[in-house]
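Objective 1.3, modelling of assemblies. Example input:
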Amino acid sequence: MNKMTLADVQTRGKRVLVRCDFNVPLAGGRVTDDTRLVASLPTIRHLVEAGARVILCSHLGRPKGKPDPAYSLRPVAERLGALLGQEVRLAPDCVGPAVEAMARDLRDGEILLLENVRFHPEEEANDAGFAASLAALAALYVNDAFGSGHRAHASTEGITRHLSPSVAGFLMETELEHLGSLLSDPARPFVALLGGAKISGKLDVIGNLLGRVDRILVGGGMAFTFLKAKGFEVGRSLVEEDRLEVAARTLEDAARRRSAIDLPADVLVIESLETGDPGRVVPVDRIPANAIGVDIGPRTVEAFSAILDGARTVFWNGPMGIFEKAPYAKGTIAVAEAVARASDRGAATVVGGGDSAAAVAAAGVQGRITHISTGGGASLEFVEGKELPGVAALTDRPKR
Ligand code: ADP
Ligand code: MG
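Predicted structure (tokens):
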């Protein structure tokens, strides 16, 4: 890692602005999964113990550039305070005179959480004036929001032009080390396992991964776009029609390079998502015209598991089915176990993506995975070999 980190800087008595990824799920005004909050505790605790004046900021959801109480960070302030055993004050906004006064009043070791940066359209527009207003609150910038690293926004990129040095927090550092090891000389065979629902983004990922990995296993919703591109009937399964051509080209590209893209051989199909239909397994060339594919079938599980058993590096993003519903979770749970077994045998295993991390937890194998990334899109772009703007903008470590 050639970026300066929190360990390289003195923070006592300084106001330090930390960009965190507190984009957590909420229900009824409470945080329902605090994984991302727990992941940022090492950086926050380090700063508090060092006597820094800690100013935290984050986005939450998509509030459309204006204040919306449904996307307030108040539940985060409360849960974070409980986790730290210390008050986390919430500012009424993230910029402006009232917030500046609160920042100025901070004493060593105290924590202030700014309100959602996306309450301002300037955040996503990476507006220079807005970035300068954020920067005015502090003397030093720490980026611990790996999950937002692929976005050039004011609080992840623009701000680094106004505060120096800009350093990586401990979570960011851990993420970059683990994901970086997938890029530089990974042990082979290197197998990527992809699934989930965000097809359009992930199709491009597959194209870019072809040159990096030895094999790509495709399950989940995205498999149906490939199956349809190959000419199979996929019924009413999730398909992105306008991506069929890209999918077909990706398959041709893979054939030309002799790198394998493995699609499901069988799938679990249902008639309706509403009725709790347990479904039935069919080979992919027998999907009925009215059926919906919701999981990979047992033959596919066996084939994918055998390939994972021989892997020495595994990157997994995206569940193999609609795993939130127990009858359709078998394939996802089985591959999670196969990834964990690969880990047990010494393979480096990295899982990225919120739903994939939840699937790993549902399978009860989180302790056996080498690294569970807090970033979904960011981890994918990183593994594709793309530069993440929020990371590139951090201060380089001086060459010795
Ligand atoms: P991640 O959060 O790990 O990056 P995604 O958000 O891309 O993963 O995908 C997760 C979602 O994909 C889950 O909500 C899951 O229900 C859905 N999904 C998986 N397989 C299918 C399928 N066959 N049809 C529809 N949705 C699916
Ligand atoms: Mg998701």
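Residues 353-355, 376 surround magnesium ion (ligand 2) (CB under 6 Å).
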